[in-house]
TrEMBL record:
Pfam families according to UniProt: ABC_tran
GO molecular function: ATP binding; ATP hydrolysis activity
Organism encoding this protein: Jiangella asiatica
PANTHER family: ABC TRANSPORTER G FAMILY MEMBER 20 ISOFORM X1 (PTHR43038:SF3), ATP-BINDING CASSETTE, SUB-FAMILY H, MEMBER 1 (PTHR43038)
Designated name of the protein: ABC transporter ATP-binding protein
Entry keyword set: ATP-binding, Nucleotide-binding
Domain named ABC transporter: residues: 19-242
UniProt entry tagged with the keyword Ribonucleoprotein: no
Superkingdom in the source lineage: Bacteria
């Protein structure tokens, strides 16, 4: 795993990873979803979080934003405990569940969230434009398509220019053109210094991230660049690399039994 060596941690906080997880254990119902889980994510990076359904992606994201009860270990974001007060305006989280009001327009929703977050109202139009919804700014959210609706949720995460954005499948239900535009936006935000962790089921989207994390049954199967993954597996693309790694893990498990 790519740990940031301790000596790079400086008192100014610039050397502290955006996200630092050590020995995380999460139990949900009868299931241990994450166990002794370690991860570091550098600031100003766009990381793709991939893995089969049920592998623990949402659980990991919930732990990072501090809404998941944890059974052990530590999760620090920007050098502070996950979910703590100093992180309130610095970390944005968009879940798969709709979080905006159907009976308000796009602009009214964003003005409301800007007020709640203490973000300047001038952020509202910028965020609407960033998610390509300027033509629908005065439409009621309840009358928007599924993809437009999820983009309104995404726009709320862009208010106040958070330093860390945790986005759970933000491109589900979007057409290919919009997906490309949103990944370009994510890359721009990272280039401007934000740290993004974005989950996805779509493998060609993975190729738009500088770093990829692959989860399987709560285990970190890979944490590498796309080039690193392709070199390691000999596969032609991210999908092939992940299938190869999953197959290898399954064979190892069968051999261990
Ligand atoms: N509230 C809950 N109570 C009990 N088990 C849960 C709960 N929520 C999730 N789980 C279980 O935890 C495991 C990880 O779920 P999680 O939602 O983190 O996976 P995921 O990788 O995000 O899946 P998907 O891609 O389908 O959203 C799954 O086995 C799931 O069934």
């Amino acid at each position: 795993m790519n740990y940031v060596p301790e000596h790079t941690v400086d008192p100014t906080g610039h050397g502290v990873p955006a996200i630092r997880i050590r020995g995380l254990r999460v139990v949900r119902g009868p299931l241990t979803v994450l166990d002794d889980f370690d991860l570091d994510i550098r600031r100003g990076t766009l990381t793709g979080l991939l893995g089969p359904s049920g592998s623990g992606k949402s659980t990991l994201m919930r732990a990072i934003v501090g809404v998941q009860q944890v059974a052990g270990g530590t999760v620090e974001v920007l050098g502070e405990p996950a979910g703590s007060k100093p992180l309130r305006d610095r970390v944005a989280y968009v879940t798969q569940a709709p979080s905006v009001y159907a009976d308000l327009t796009v602009r009214q929703n964003l003005r409301y969230y800007a007020r709640v977050l203490g973000a300047p109202l001038s952020d509202v139009d910028r965020a609407i434009e960033q998610v390509e919804l300027a033509t629908h700014a005065d439409h009621l959210v309840g009358r928007l398509s599924g993809g437009q609706h999820s983009r309104v949720s995404l726009a709320t995460a862009l208010l106040g220019e958070p330093e860390v954005l945790v986005l759970d499948e933000p491109t589900v239900g979007l057409d290919p053109v919009l997906r490309v535009q949103l990944w370009e936006l994510f890359n721009r935000l990272a280039a401007d210094g934000a740290t993004l962790l974005v989950s996805s089921h779509v493998m060609d989207e993975a190729e738009r991230c500088e770093r990829l994390i692959l989860l399987r049954e709560g285990m970190l199967l890979a944490d590498d660049t796309l080039a690193g993954l392709l070199a390691r597996t000999g596969a032609a693309d991210a999908e092939g690399a992940f299938l190869e790694l999953i197959e290898k893990a399954e064979k190892k498990e069968a051999g261990d039994r």
